[in-house]
Structures are given as C-alpha cells and as structure tokens.
Amino acid sequence: MVQTNQMVMLSCEAKTSFTNTRIFWLRQRQAPSKYSHHEFLASWDSTKGTVRSTEVEQEKLTVLREGTRFVLNLTSVKPVDSGIYFCMTVGTPELTFGMGTNLSVVDVLPTTAQPTMESTTKKRVCRLPNPVTRKGPPCSPLTLGLLVAGTLVLLVSLCVAIHLYRLRRRAQLHFIKQFYK
C-alpha cells in the first residue's frame, strides 16, 4: 500500500539469457474476474530499449535494467494506478509470467493500533467432554460453531485460490496465442 503522489519501484528478475529477451510489464486493474484483462504498460528489449504504451503518461513510467533485474518505476501514483502488476519475460523459446504484485494507492494511509499494556489471561484449552475422565472444560456450541466456520472459510479460500490460478493460467495461454499469431 502506498500513498498518493509517491514513487513506486517494482522489480522483476529475469532468469533467461538476454539474447532476444523481451520484458513486458502488464497491469490488471480490477479484481480478477472473467471480464478483467491484462493492460500493456511497457516493454524492454536489447535492441529497442523501453517501449511505452500510448495509453500511459510517458513521464510517469520508466523501465530500467539492472543486471538480470528489470525495474518498473512509477512516479506520482494515483488511486487509479492501483492494480496487480505483472512482468513477463519472452525469451527463446520460453515465456515466463510473474506472480504479480498488488499495488494499492490510497489518499491516506491507515493508522496502526497502539499495543496495549494490559496483561493477558492464560487461555483455556477447550476439549470435547470425555465420558471416562471428564477433564478440561467442555466446548460450548458457540466455540464449536466458530471452529466449523473457520474451517469452511479456509476451504472456500482454497477454492477461490484455485479458481484465480486457473484464470491466470487461461490469461497466459490467451496472451501466448495472441502474441504468436
């Protein structure tokens, strides 16, 4: 998360040889869905240097090479610059798509809560009642309900992560098909 009008530097490590290697920077503006797409921002190759999209302010964006790293430098960021930024390397013969970096630009950074100095009590361990030993406090229905709800949230999160991975993979394949037509 970064504040409005700040400078942001995103880096991408290229693990390919630099003969005929091109680096592309892409942005996905909204949360991933079947309607979202990857927007081309800039590219770099050894013969042309940096090539920017016509839809991007020229002075706002630069791509720099530092050894095997490529840095996307954004100046005076605004909330509309928020999104997931991806780098993609196109070499011979492989194409590598980065994991993406989520950039959130806000007008005011959230404040952090101050730690309290109150002592904490020892946590009670909740156990299901054992008819033989009867040790430990019994779990209340509320506690069991929260445990079940937490487990369901984790399962749903896993399903969403798998779905987003499939969407990203589909976007990669779609981009490859368009790129090599």
From TrEMBL:
<dbReference type="InterPro" id="IPR036179">
    <property type="entry name" value="Ig-like_dom_sf"/>
</dbReference>
<keyword id="KW-0472">Membrane</keyword>
<keyword id="KW-0732">Signal</keyword>
<keyword id="KW-1064">Adaptive immunity</keyword>
<keyword id="KW-0325">Glycoprotein</keyword>
<keyword id="KW-0393">Immunoglobulin domain</keyword>
<dbReference type="InterPro" id="IPR013106">
    <property type="entry name" value="Ig_V-set"/>
</dbReference>
<dbReference type="InterPro" id="IPR007110">
    <property type="entry name" value="Ig-like_dom"/>
</dbReference>
<protein>
    <submittedName>
        <fullName>T-cell surface glycoprotein CD8 beta chain isoform X1</fullName>
    </submittedName>
</protein>
<keyword id="KW-0391">Immunity</keyword>
<keyword id="KW-1133">Transmembrane helix</keyword>
<dbReference type="InterPro" id="IPR042414">
    <property type="entry name" value="CD8B"/>
</dbReference>
<dbReference type="InterPro" id="IPR013783">
    <property type="entry name" value="Ig-like_fold"/>
</dbReference>
<dbReference type="InterPro" id="IPR003599">
    <property type="entry name" value="Ig_sub"/>
</dbReference>
<feature type="domain" description="Ig-like">
    <location>
        <begin position="1"/>
        <end position="87"/>
    </location>
</feature>
<feature type="transmembrane region" description="Helical">
    <location>
        <begin position="142"/>
        <end position="165"/>
    </location>
</feature>
<dbReference type="Pfam" id="PF07686">
    <property type="entry name" value="V-set"/>
</dbReference>
<keyword id="KW-1015">Disulfide bond</keyword>
<keyword id="KW-0812">Transmembrane</keyword>
